Amino acid sequence: MIQVRGVAKTYPVPGGEFPALSGVDLAVDAGEFTAVVGRSGSGKTTLLNLLAGIDRPTAGEVRVAGTAVHEVRETQLAAWRGRAVGLVFQFFQLLPTLTVAENVMLPMDFRGTVAARRRRPLALELLDRVGIAEHADKVPAGLSGGQQQRAAIARALANDPPVILADEPTGNLDSATAAAVLELFRELARAGKAVVMVTHERDLSGYADRLVTLVDGRVAGDVAVTA
Amino acid sequence: MRPRTVKMWRDLSAARGRVAVMILAIAVAMSGVGALLIARTVLVREAAAVYVGTNPASATLEVEGGVDAALLAQVRTRPGVTDAAARQTVLTRVRVGDQWRRMLLFVIAADDPMRVAKLRMESGAWPPADGELLLERTAEPVLDATAGDRLAVAGPSGATTEVRVSGTVYDAALAPAGQESVGYGYLTPAGLARLGFTASADELRIVTPARDQASVEATASAVAAWLTAQGREVHQIKAPPYQHPHHSQSETITGMFLAFALAALVLAGVLVAATLGGMLAAQTRQIGIMKTVGATTGQLLRVYLGAVAAIAATATVLAVGPALLAGYGLTGLVAEMLNVEIANRAMPWWVPATYVGAGLAIPLAVALVPLVRAARITVRAALDEHGAGTGVGSRRSDRWLTRLRGGRLSTLALRNLLRRRGRLALTLALLAAGGAMFTSGLNSSAAWRSWVDDGMARRAYDAQLRLTSSAPADAIARAATAVDGVVAAEPFVSLVATPATADGRIEVQRTYPDDGHGRFLLAALPAPTRMVDFEVTAGRWLHAADTDGVVLNQSAVSRLGDPHLGDDVHLAVDGVVGRWRLVGTVAEAGGPATAYTTPQSVARFVDPGTANMLHITTTGDTEEVTDAVEASLATAGLMVGESMLIADLRTAIDEHVAVFIGTLLALAALMAAVGILGLAATMSITVTQRTREYGVMQAIGARPATIRRMVLLEGTLTGLLGSLVAIVLGVPLSVLVGELLGTISFGLPLPLRLSPVGLAAWLLLSVAAAAVATLVAAHRAARLTIRETLSYQ
Fold this sequence. Notes:
The complex is a heterodimer. Chain A is of the alpha/beta class.
């Protein structure tokens, strides 16, 4: 589902160029929950941004859900992303003036993947799946952090993308809520999604299938996680 | 409703204050646009309709000895003539209370079929009895008379005869009597004879099927040649443009005002763009998020354009009422000024269509660029936006900012002011554009007053008297100076002249039947004269030794086709053509086209040493002294046919443009309102966007009051800077407006005058508005807790 080959990413800085990633190779299959770990500045978020088409590699190839993301034009990236990738952020990033259900319906609206009359029932279904259906008509500010993250996950699933990318999704949650969110990702992977999560969490046993460690922009470890 | 639409409405609802400012700005501008669209369209159409409705004469030929019925019948059969009428116009005076008023008597035969230069009876009936006349309806207030009243009308000897007002008529071809300070009366030849005048229908009015100037002039010249061949002398041919006397001025000025109003709308569009740009800048992360869930640039752009369209549509609808009120109000005022009766107030379909089109399209077009820029932001750039930091110091041009030194607060305020230079430029542009138009409106008004004041000051006389016939100049002067209160008296010669060609052919005049609009005079003043000191715009004023020198005022220069100094000028007086050499040109406020020359150069037209006009300078009550001078002249056997006080001339000049100056000032206020609203909106955005930064400052110990002071200082500096730019930009704009207004009104550009009141008002207004707008936003920001400000997105 995801193939990363020989990817490098450098950023211009006042003193020259900063290599955020160098020679990264990675493949993630459908149904696999992969956690990418590493210290701050190790290149985790850069890798995730490349997978989501938010950034472009300086060298190498990024293929996600059958698309060579590094070749897609900027104007077409949003449409591709809406269909192929579901993104989850550390600070949830729900739109504050929309209700939770409306937030979930927004990707369907932009991509037109679901008939208008089917959008709300589907949004409620997704919210039920993540366990917050009763909060569907509240605005995000009225929800706890964990509930907001669940809403964000429901939104990421709105267009039924094959790939879920999550950037520190538990970084702003207490440990119990974080565990619940990780469990949700595991379920999604079991349901056939390729889930890639960038995280600081070290103890992912029981959730992730695989642990990729980045050090100074290079893959320093790639191990299967055992329960 | 789709979530994206829901989001748009809720975002607008959350920013109610700013949305209200945007709607208000567009609505204010649209009120002006709508009002001027209505006024211009209805006025131009109705003025043309009423003027054409009178079936005005295409040309009037002044025929020596008058035109009798037999000759008139023959003229009607001439090629190119569809109809003809014989009329007479006599200028006399009417006693109103203890004052004299000028009076134009239009003499029409009792059996005139009234097909040419038609009148509409408002009361009474045509023809009036011998001892009666009809008044043009606008003459009633001038003469303080209505149907049934009696008027004391002066005859050629100066003696008055009582005439009864039998009714009123509407003559749409005439400028309002009040504006011209003249009464208009209509009577039969028998009625005129009763006053002691000789009835002689010397104005042959012909109607031609073609109304273009060339065809009319060709037909009129052919009729004149035919009359000459019949042994009848034609002194003058008048062929006014086929439109109301004030038509082109009204059209040009309302056009200029419409351009002003459209500029205000563009300004309001910029305000919307700036405000929305600011709101979008605060929503950058949300735009990024929407793009991560699949929103394309086009989809986001459509959402935001929808917001602009909603704002513009609301404003356009809200402005309908004020636009209709102001539009028809202005139409009424200008119609009164033009003596135009509005028969049909309906506006053509394209007026509302243009109104709606402008109301929607201009704000959308102006907002398009910032909206496209906001919608095109990449996800990466959007997610990297943090709000507090703006990358200051990263640009090479920022480095000097860090070297700014001063008080702690002022340094911070100054650096903040200059760090978002794009926003600052937009704010200043808004303020400067609004302010420039505001100050140019007030400057033009000041220039107008200054020009008229100066023009009046250049006339040393307080009253001008016209005698019924020429008399020895020294006798006139003696009789005048014998009166107490006369400081100086200067007799001179003034003759109605007609521009002619070098081979002696009389040129067709563009004069209207009221003989005021388009009149050309030849005035022989003593050299040097003590009574006028016109500004010489080229060459020189007359010398005593000039035997054929002539000085033209700007209207005469224009009428004679812009001759150069040293050129020959040919003028005909009573059919006799004379030649003069142009020695200078002068600027003259008010008065008709006039060629000034010396007494000796008009010797071929009048007896040497005689005069028919008198200028007097008085002390005390000018009216009383003028009456006394008239009495003194009468005692000496010199009858006065007309007298005019300079104060009345001033009134006539002011009346011609009062509505236009008023409209200009109203538009200036409208511009100021839009500019101030723009400043308020952008200052509020600037402060709101820094909310997070204020949180950081409070976290490290800044008190809310300190933040308020810093922000207030920044806002005040912006207001000050914007108003200074406005004042500078207002100068060339004032020149432009002054050129247009002056050229239309006087044939010369208005001088540049800066209105100190206007400049000071703008300075105070913009600084105060900046302070208030900033304070409101700063107060709101300072009230937030540190936690609230730091979590502000």
